[in-house]
Design goal:
The chain has helices spanning 11-14, 67-75, 88-99, 148-152, 161-164, 180-190, 209-216, 243-254, 269-281, 295-304, 321-325, 331-342, 358-366, 376-379, 405-409, 439-457, 462-470, 481-487; strands spanning 26-28, 44-47, 50-52, 56-58, 79-82, 110-112, 129-133, 142-147, 166-167, 173-175, 194-199, 202-208, 235-238, 258-261, 286-292, 308-311, 349-352, 371-374, 389-391, 394-400, 430-434, 476-478. It is α/β, with parallel strands linked by helices. It binds 1,4-dihydronicotinamide adenine dinucleotide, xanthosine-5'-monophosphate and potassium ion. Its cofactor is K(+).
Length: 500
């Protein structure tokens, strides 16, 4: 006997009532489980031609994604988008750096000639050692090395490197594309403390035993996001100015796999012309347009040729766009609306901004997105740019909006060069986030939590979640203020929140 009843709302009905809902406003009703958590696959598409095994993308912000973050995201099966708040050659170098290794470790070694002195260079916390080569560049013969500890214990800081460096008498390099297991085996076999990664006669990086041990302690990595060239895939952000066409040339030469047109309001004549230019000049290159939050914006960018779309206006943790400009949309509504149109053309959607827990990721992916893009969620990690600082007893990293006055002023005034006569208005803030450790550790745990959410919904893949959404099998409700309080921890005098 089948009983006819109606419980909860279909997304189509819920999101057509004139409210702008964000992730916390809505809740899914659980469905039926007939598979284990491990049967859930989160593999997905970033854009028409790029597949990922993990639906995570790091945001093109100068406190989130440079080469270190991008290598880690690729190693996790996601993707990093290198920010454009640098000169075009610097941004292209960051792309090359990602493509010149197959381990999520990056020590950015400094090269010196035998006659040089190191004055204070080791003050920078991130520099573990200096490599001494014949000419002092990465492309000449390696003669020796000096560790930070060697230099720190030196009484005469004016001594030449040649006088106290460790000389290299045997080969201490491996090919650039060795993976972690191969490097580990080599270090053990040779009993070395470190090894150089070498590519076409150039030292690309120094990998220490300590770093290999650190990464081995994290959840096991899969194959990662590797392109047909056998290299890690990486994206880069560009703008829509004339000068960005030149920037794009640098990036394409460096081997960039996808470009993201980085704008708060993507539905503009500038972006449409840029998409057309890219599709005409580099037909093989995927281009992601955005940001968009409405069906109309979506339709325009898809017609122009976008291979993927980035969704979110004002939803980011550092964003003030909705306050300053009075435009934007609640992120849950935006993701649902944009995805429902984009799906008709098979264009994948990136839910960008507003992610602060695994539940938000489940909501974004179930409401139609194919990936999530994160800023604040990643900015406190080991792999984010910048050094840790201490503030009020917390270990923190700086995190700032790309539309903050500080970010706009930093070098990247190019974006606004033509507008020097105009008054500059910030649409973002400068802040800080807490230390979260390595993304190599917390992203796998976060993805496990997302898989549990999918299991509760009865969805074993992103496609099946989207099918449940569109067939109206997936039911939702809006949470009242009290329901949101109830859904969180409440009624305790104190507690510690530890997810894994
Ligand atoms: N997702 C979000 O809610 C927001 C994100 N942001 C971030 O801040 C950064 C800056 O964003 P936007 O200010 O939107 O950058 P944008 O480069 O799109 O726009 C800056 C200004 O330049 C103008 N412009 C762009 N191309 C032009 C061309 N070819 N000719 C003449 N004028 C042109 C735009 O109309 C706008 O007035 C980006 O990284 C963006 O992701 C900023 C605000 C909101
Ligand atoms: O209004 C804004 N002013 C800004 O200065 C700004 N900078 C970044 N973004 C956007 O925020 C996203 C990251 O958001 P989360 O920290 O919430 O992940 C990013 O991915 C961007 O879409 C900005 N939005
Ligand atoms: K905001």
């Amino acid at each position: 006997m089948t009983i006819e009843f109606e419980d909860g709302f279909a997304a189509e009905k819920l999101f057509n009532q004139g409210y702008s809902y964000t992730y916390d406003d809505v809740i899914f009703l659980p469905h039926y489980i007939d598979f284990p958590t491990d049967a859930v696959s989160l593999s997905t598409k970033l854009s028409r031609n790029i597949s990922l095994s993990t639906p995570c993308v790091s945001s093109p912000m100068d406190t989130v994604t440079e080469s270190y973050m991008a290598t880690a995201m690729a190693a996790l099966g996601g993707m990093g988008i290198i920010h454009s708040n640098t000169t075009p050659p610097e941004q292209a170098d960051a792309v090359r750096s990602v493509k010149s290794r197959r381990v999520p470790i990056l020590s950015n070694p400094v090269f010196k000639s035998p006659d040089s002195l190191i004055v204070d260079q080791f003050d920078d916390d991130s520099l573990p050692c200096v490599i001494v080569t014949e000419s002092g560049t990465a492309t000449s013969k390696v003669l020796g090395y000096v560790f930070k500890s060697d230099w720190m214990s030196l009484s005469d800081k004016e001594a030449k490197l040649v006088d106290y460096m460790h000389t290299v008498d045997s080969k201490i390099s491996v090919p650039w594309n060795y993976d972690l297991a191969q490097i580990d085996a080599y270090l053990k076999q040779q009993d070395h403390d470190f090894v150089l990664l070498e590519k076409e006669g150039e030292v690309v990086d120094v990998i220490t035993k300590q770093e290999v041990e650190r990464v081995k302690g994290y959840p096991k990595l899969g194959k990662g996001t590797v392109g047909s060239d056998g290299k890690w895939m990486v994206g880069a952000a560009i703008g829509t100015r004339q000068s960005d066409r030149e920037r794009l040339e640098h990036l394409v030469k460096a081997g960039v796999d996808v470009v993201v047109l980085d704008s708060s309001q993507g539905n503009s004549i500038y972006q449409i012309e840029m998409i057309k230019h890219i599709k005409q000049t580099y037909p093989e290159l995927d281009v992601i347009g955005g940001n968009v939050v409405t069906m109309y914006q979506t339709q325009n960018l898809i017609e122009a040729g976008a291979d993927g779309l980035r969704v979110g206006m004002g939803s980011g943790s550092i964003c003030t766009t909705q306050e300053v400009c009075a435009v934007g949309r609640g992120q849950a509504t935006a993701v649902y609306k944009v995805s429902s149109i984009a799906a008709r053309s098979g264009v994948p959607v990136i839910a960008d901004g507003g992610i602060s827990n695994s539940g938000h990721i489940v909501k974004a992916l179930t409401l139609g997105a194919s990936t999530v893009m994160m800023g604040s969620f990643l900015a406190g990690s080991t792999e984010a740019p910048g050094a840790y600082q201490y503030k009020n007893g917390y270990r923190i990293k700086k995190y700032r909006g790309m539309g903050s006055l500080e970010a706009m002023t930093k070098g990247s005034d190019q974006r606004y060069l033509g507008d020097t006569a105009k008054l500059k208005i910030a649409q973002g803030v400068v802040g800080a986030v807490a230390d979260k450790g390595s993304v190599l550790r917390f992203i796998p745990y976060t993805m496990q939590a997302v898989k549990q959410g999918f299991q509760d919904l009865g969805a074993s893949s992103l496609q099946s979640a989207h099918d449940l959404l569109r067939s109206k099998t997936l039911r939702l409700e809006v949470r009242t203020g009290a329901a949101q309080v109830e859904g969180g921890v409440h009624g305790l005098i104190s507690y510690e929140k530890k997810a894994f």
